[in-house]
Amino acid sequence: MKRFFSLILMAGSLLAKGQQNYDVSLISKQLMPYASSVVRLSEESIEVADAGSQTYRIKKAITILNRSGDDEAEILVWHDKTTSIKYIKGFVYDGGGKLVSKFNERSFEDAYAGNDFSLFEDARVMHFQPSVMDYPYTIEYEYETRNKQTLSFNSWVPANSTNMAVEKSSFTFTCKPGFLIRYKEINLPGAVQKGTNKAGMNTFTWQVSNVKATREEPYSPNADKFLAMVKTAPVEFKYGTLTGTFSNWNELGKWVYDRLLAGRQALAPSTVAQIKELTKGITDEKQRAKKIYEYMQDRTRYISIQIGIGGFQPFPAADVDRLNYGDCKALVNYTQALLAAADIKSYYCVVQAGGRKVDFDPSFASMNAGNHVILCLPFKNDTTWLECTSQKMPFGYLGDFTDDRTVLACTPEGGVLLHTPKYTADKNLQIRKATLKLDTTGEIIGDMITTYKGTQYENQESLTYESFSDQIKGIKKSYAINNLEVSKLKFDKNKDINPNLNEELQFIARDYASVTNNKLHFTPNLANRSRGLREIRNRATDVCIQRGYTDEDEIVYTLPADNYRQEKKPLLVIIEKPFGKYTASLILIGNKLTYKRRMQLLDGTYSKETYAELTRFFEDVADADNYSTILVKQ
Amino acid sequence: MNRFLLALATALVAFSATANAQDFDYGKFSHDELNSKSYKNDTSAHAVVLQEFGNARIVDADRITLDFDYHVRIKIFDNKGYDNGNIEIPIRVSSDSQEEITDIEGVTYYTNESGEAIKVALDKKNIFTVKDNQYWSTVKFAMPALHNGCVIEYKYHLRSPYFFKFKGWDFQSDIPKISSVYKVRIPAVYNYKISLRGTLPLLEGKQYEPGIERDCFSINGIKADCSAFLFAMKDIPAFKEEEYMTSKRNFLSAMNFELEDYTNLGTGAKMKMSKEWKDVDRELKTDESFGSQIKKKDYFKDKLVPVLAGKTTELEKAYAVFHFIQKNIKWNGFLSAYSSDGIRKAFEKHTGNTADINLALITALKSAGINVEPVMMSTRDHGQITKIYPVLSEFNYVVGRAEIGGKTYFLDATDPLLSFGLLPLRCLNDQGRVFSLDKPSYWVDFAPQSQSSTYALDFKLQENGKLKGTITTFLTGYDAYSKRKAIKEFNTVDEFVENFDEKMPKIKIHKFEIKNIDSLESALVEKYDVEIDVYDNMDAKKLSFNPFILTRISQNPFKLEERSYPVDRGMALTERVTLNIELPKNYKVEYSPKNVGLALPNNGGRFVTSFQTEGNNFNFSHIIQLNKAVYGPNEYPYLKELYNQIILSEKLDLIFTKS
Predict the structure, then answer these.
(1) The predicted structure's pLDDT at residue A14
(2) Least CA distance to B508: which residue of chain A?
(3) Domain interval for residue A346
(4) Tell me, what CATH number does A185's domain have?
(5) Do B86 and A513 touch (CB under 8 A)?
(6) Inter-chain touch B147–A299, beta carbons under 8 Å
(7) Which of A165, A563, B357, B420 has fewest C-beta within 10 Å?
(8) Residue A9 and residue A311: Cα distance in Å, rounded?
(9) Where are the beta strands (DSSP E) in A456-579?
(10) pLDDT tens by residue, A212-260
């Protein structure tokens, strides 16, 4: 009974308190298109009161307009060993801006936030989503966390999701006078406002207002090409007992090398001896490196281990040698140690990995950049790169995970920005030749040989490690050939720096062609049909094709007799655009029906107006790919 | 499939070999195992369990605990099998009692370059415990020094205070096993029902007969004999999941234990857990999280006054109450057959688990005078239910079953887009048990659910090569639900249509109308005025046309040579498409495909096409019907062929000619 009473009192006091008006009708109509949520007001701040720690505060009110905006109502507060949560509280308002309920830290649930299988990762997240049934509604919350380091700071991204509009959002960095910061403003309409607060601390404030919602657009460029954001970094920092200074990549790379990497490469004398033995007599440096890389691949596996210094420091090479596992940092560090044992120089390189190519920004050094580590071997005129977390990748091959981007090499002389190799459209090949016999029942029989190169090497690579029965299942999934019965399937890999994969398939497929009245109906494009691309009206961003490729298909059908003719107009399509080329043809000579297709997509950034043309291109390609022929016996 | 082992009921042999069955030795390896390159019974396996031994017993130390030892040796052939060296053991924790893992030991054996066998022990420092949430933690370790061809071995001891839930044993997993043995010792003061799922047989023979250990358990002066069991299998194939199947738990060979009764060690009284349905019925009636909740009819009385205002028929009232609950309690993502905080709290906080919501629905319906009863069930992922005796832990969901005007409706209010009488796909599983609270409970089949789409396309081919006309779709059942869900993903209906239009660059939508988006009980009707690019021009003398312009199945969903488990789609399917095209005056259809009519055996489904032409008009219609929710493996080839015929028909173009 008593508890009930106090609750009422609390609610009463809340209502009495002066509040921002979150009535939804106050949102400008201009912010509504494509918006499922609107940030009404957001005030984010980072405060560095002493050089060894930072306080992050956020106060944010966000209106959820409909179901699809619900995810934005989930509040996530990340924490770990160095980050503690000081408080969390919040309120829920209805569409009219009337207070409905409140919540606090006790409403939240704490959960592990590490990787699938990760040893010793202490990332955790407090999360809570208020339960509201009536749209629209607004939640307002604030929390404060304290982090015992000043090496890295959160970036400020006012509209960090698609379909989110922003009425007003600000970010303030506050620090004591001696603490210098660097910052980078990206896509911001206004510049920083500098000042001093009552406590005599320096303040830097940025703000944006009336930001319209963006939508998901295919082939969009990286977020930093169109979203407003501010990145900040320290000059002098502390991380626990470590200290450091940097204002460019050279200094940051130097610090990483000196404080995080140096001294972690000692190996047992027996291992060093083993490496020397392994590479004995191999004079070519690159061949020695290849031998060592394969040795490393053979005896390690990747396991995520976030240990020490915010997960920035690799665990020692000797540990990897003993345990035979490690994360990207540990495996790179270990490989580097093994190479050193054979007198081969290499660089520990931090990279932003992923299908999207993201460069390290030469003008702004920050510990926030990068999520992965690879190894660079600076051979004379023949720089070679190694991905050390894969047991299967060919020596010197990066694939589309870390290709063509600027990375930070951490060397004893300091950090150096390097660029990883690019796989160009004419090297990312898929070349297919099929020779098939088509009979009067519509069955095809024959073989199809496909070669994959460049980034396309990885198209079927994972299948090669499967058992034969699983390979067959996989092949049936890759090819939309109805009733595919495989009689032979063989993969050959050439694990060169420019690897290629050869796939040899022998098969039968009944009913490939439909037969009626002596006519054969079928799609001559056997195994490589593209789908159309969706249109985007009022496209907002440039068209960015991250990676190009070239596909060539040649399929020769031997017909049951030489007195067939094509009932439809024979296929002949040639399209040439700045971003791609396509040709397809179908020619009948005697009893040989030959289908040829060549498709090339060229990487690059094109104006947003190009998008309509790209859609049209893919539509025409899809039409030509799905062309079905009718063969009539004369 | 469930087999009930009668072992416990029969008189036990006073002493058998069972009690002596021992774990295999730790730390032994053989060169043959290290040298083997593949597993002869399954050469596709990346790893195989060589030996696995579990030993579970209820122990009478300072407190009663369930003690469990696990010991395994796994041969890893290649690096695709390395995941077997990443060990995660989930443990239950709570503030007052928790499970503990101790005595973890592990070792990896491999052959080095010079052919020597090397042993590398797991370092205790590299064992970590991570707290997942307030109920669970995970003990993790990675076996060291994995090499292709290596053998790993590890063991651990688990001590659990949760002995009511005796440790089950999975004989089958995603890698094959050569031998798997589970030793179980249970004091006679606890009586469990033991069942075996799956189709694989247990080993039989003298040593596998159950036995008795005298006076093996003593606490508070009570002494008890123990039953000792030894369950074993050998040459267990890997379990391979197939598409369109329900929970693999239905098919995996595994041992399950359910506490039936126990002797209260303080009073010596026999406490029944859930021996018979009548006991369950009685317990549920007063269960704080179940029966007691449904009695709170009065709670809704006032709240329903405005909801029921003007509603006269029972069905109208039921609709109103259903939508009222749907709109007032949001599902928090947790599945349960029991209310967690009570329906009152769920209603006030607007959030609850599936039982909070559906028990609130049932209570509110009762309050409105509707004849409704709760039905407990198991969701598809959760598996099938044992029928021969009650296993309450197999229930993880509850829905309502209402009798209105002689019709039966199954009701679930956990999703605001589900219409009255439609159960979500997760519920379309097995049978449910009706607990009416005043009559004995009974099994019930769920009303069959269906998905149905009808498309009517009406076009005129223009002289400019474009088709102009209307597309009208009628969706009911699950198809209407899915479409409503898709529409609600967008901020407005306009944005949904814009997206739909953008996805089909050939089609321009000029006008649209979507009816009944929020009237869940009616068919969802969409009508689009469209223009479709078909030909760049009409210069050619002959034009070909594929009549499958809207729906097309490019790949046969059924590709297996052999099917081991049923295809379980959960519901029947119907798709009808009717296409009318008026050609320009001087055109006629020169060639059209033959009509197809194909049926599955036992009225299981059909595919029918029909083509008619008159002057410069033609009409093409087709229908795909799958009438059953579940098809047995023996029906698989027919399903496969049905789809083959659909794909064949879709390849056929018709030809127009200009006269």
Answers:
(1) 39
(2) A535
(3) 246-419
(4) 2.60.40.3140
(5) no
(6) yes
(7) A563
(8) 47
(9) 484-494, 500-509, 514-516, 519-522, 543-545, 549-558, 564-566, 572-577
(10) 999 999 999 999 999 999 999 999 999 988 999 999 999 999 999 999 9
